[in-house]
Specification:
InterPro entries: DALR_anticod-bd (IPR008909), DALRD3 (IPR037380), Rossmann-like_a/b/a_fold (IPR014729), tRNAsynth_Ia_anticodon-bd (IPR009080). There is one protein chain. By secondary structure, the protein is an alpha/beta fold. Among the domains are: 8-89, no CATH class; 112-204 and 214-263 and 283-329, Rossmann fold, CATH 3.40.50.620. It is built from 19 helices and 14 strands. A five-stranded parallel β-sheet has the order 6-5-10-11-14. A four-stranded antiparallel β-sheet has the order 1-2-4-3. The radius of gyration is 27 Å and the shape is globular.
């Protein structure tokens, strides 16, 4: 019998190993229809390529049925079908092992560090909806990386006096800074580096040319540097950059963040391998990711090259750009700021809540609920689409609803339903109606026979740790400076989980009559849904969304 929490990846590796193949033969089923008959399938076409005539030898079949090892789910049966080789797991045993383990392992101390730079926050008072996308993506990615034991530094730190209202409203946790002598020293060192660089030219005024801005320090020839260094992935229109004090300050802040990473004395790498990020780091303990909108990409490439010129170290060569697609706003009467966008969505959420819940939604206690639903609506609107794709914001009232299954409000609603269930159960225990929930080791999981219960466990509880890992991956680019991330996976996971949980919860009565012969099934279902609740909370935490206790 395998020890510890079972995992999807470990089970697939064991299944592939049993067929003598290193990867890729088996498919995990996810649809309710197929899960009635099987959990994994080695398709007929793959078997025909792997074995003469597609016939799986008896000893190989025996190896599949006797699978075991750390993290591997036990097999109940394996049989040839027209579709291929079908495997069904020992489901009560899978329930026992999964529901008796933490849903997400605790992260190790940081061993790898990442600097996440969000240029949109250079001017926080001028934020528009298109700036919110890279900001919220940076905030979400930071949480995902920390959950995997990766250290994160966020840049730029904001002076205390800067307007933070929109960040507070959106529950963005961002560091503060008052500048300080270290930053001034770093700016001074960069100015000295300017004086030594062969790429720098003085700002001489050409006859008849327009006057240069007063804050320009010098010119830097970027194109010749790109050509000399053989750099790829940069905009071909990059040419001469006018260097200002503000640009040097931005670079100095990045240098300070890298320095903080290197003096944090990172310990051994966490158990989470994070192979992609480690290869991305190429032996360094810190990498830099600029999270930018497509409109800011050109300016950030200029800064990237300026930093490489002035500080030709290993860390500047590790700069990568994570670019967000455009944010198209429909029906704007005039350009809309981030604060106006938040207030508009809040007003729409309030109206939608009044329509659904009546006068209840006008109670003061609902203010926090509506604020949270608004943040959820905005975060899912911005983050449930792959970051490189365009998104469209519809500002009409009809675009916000408490009913739609694709929204953040729908996810929060189902999270609140779980809170209500356990609150109701706890009150019933206090009143003596039900006994307390026994330890997981004492529960009879063979009572869980409803197909929705296996769907929740197999499609959500089992792969959840791997969903968080994949969402946090920063794979190195094949060439150039752009990288992509799969951060949309968490929102999509939560939406699908909410839909399947809602379907199950509407169909199955959890807290039945208080008869002792019904308690085994009720306890097993409560243990299952308690773990579903933990997964909701862990996933929402990566979005800085608190679970709602009422709705």
């Amino acid at each position: 019998t395998g020890e510890g929490r079972p995992g999807l990846a470990a089970t697939l590796r064991a299944l592939n190993g049993a067929l003598g193949r290193p990867e890729g033969l088996w498919v995990k089923e996810s649809g309710a229809r197929n899960l009635r008959h099987r959990d994994f399938l080695a398709p007929r076409a793959a078997l025909s390529a792997a074995f003469p005539g597609g016939q799986v030898p008896a000893d190989v079949m025996s190896g599949v049925t006797s699978l075991g090892g750390p993290g591997v789910l036990e097999v109940r049966g394996c049989q040839e079908t027209p579709a291929g080789l079908a495997v069904q797991l020992r489901r009560p045993e899978a329930f026992r092992r999964l529901l008796g383990s933490p849903s997400v392992p605790s992260p190790s101390p940081p061993g790898v560090w990442v600097v996440l730079h969000c240029p949109a926050l250079r001017h926080p008072a001028a934020l528009r909806p298109r700036h919110l996308r890279p900001l919220l993506l940076t905030d979400h990615l930071a949480q995902l990386l920390r959950a995997q034991g990766v250290g994160v530094r966020l840049v730029p730190a904001l002076p205390e006096e800067e307007s933070r209202e929109v960040l507070r409203q959106l529950r963005v946790d961002w560091p503060s800074s008052s500048g300080g002598s270290a930053l001034l020293h770093a700016i001074s060192a960069l100015k000295q580096a300017l004086g030594r660089s062969p790429c720098v030219a003085a700002c001489e005024q050409a006859p008849g040319a327009a006057a240069l801005p007063k804050d320009v320090i010098c010119k830097v020839h970027l194109k010749s540097f790109v050509e000399e260094q053989g750099l790829v992935g940069y905009d071909p229109n990059l040419d001469v950059l006018l260097v200002t004090e503000e640009k040097l300050r931005s670079l100095a802040e990045l240098q300070q963040a890298v320095l903080q990473c290197t003096v944090s004395n990172p310990v051994a790498l966490p158990a989470f391998c994070f192979r992609d990020l480690i290869s991305f780091c190429q032996g360094s303990c810190c990498s830099i990711v600029h999270v930018v909108s497509c409109e800011e990409e050109f300016q950030q490439q200029q800064l990237d090259l300026l930093w490489r010129i002035l500080d030709p170290g290993a860390h500047t060569a590790l700069q990568k750009h994570l670019v967000c697609g455009s944010v198209k706003v429909t029906n704007p009467s005039s350009p809309i700021g981030a604060d106006q966008y938040f207030q508009l969505r809040k007003h729409q959420m309030y109206k939608a809540s009044v329509m659904k819940y009546g006068e209840l939604a006008e109670d003061e206690a609902w203010t926090e609920v509506i604020d949270t639903l608004t943040v959820a609506a905005i975060r899912f609107e911005m983050l449930s689409t792959a970051h490189q794709n365009q998104i469209t914001l519809d500002l009409e009232d009809s675009s916000i609803s408490t009913k739609g299954t694709k929204s953040g409000a729908f996810v929060m609603y189902n999270c609140a339903r779980l809170a209500t269930l356990f609150d109701t159960y706890q009150r019933a225990v206090e009143q003596g109606t039900y006994p307390p929930l026994p330890p997981a080791s004492e529960l009879n999981f063979s009572c869980l026979r409803e197909e929705g219960e296996w769907l929740l466990l197999f499609n959500y509880l089992l792969p959840f740790p791997e969903v968080l890992q994949q969402a946090a991956r920063l794979p190195p680019p094949s060439k150039g400076i752009r990288i992509t991330a799969n951060t949309e996976m968490v929102c999509k996971f939560l939406i699908q989980l909410s839909m399947d949980f809602s379907s199950y919860y509407n169909r199955v009565h959890i807290l039945g009559e208080p008869f002792p012969h019904l308690f085994d099934q009720m306890f097993a279902r409560l243990q299952l849904l308690g773990t579903v609740r933990d997964v909701f909370h862990s996933a929402l935490a990566t979005l800085h969304l608190p679970p709602l206790s009422q709705i």
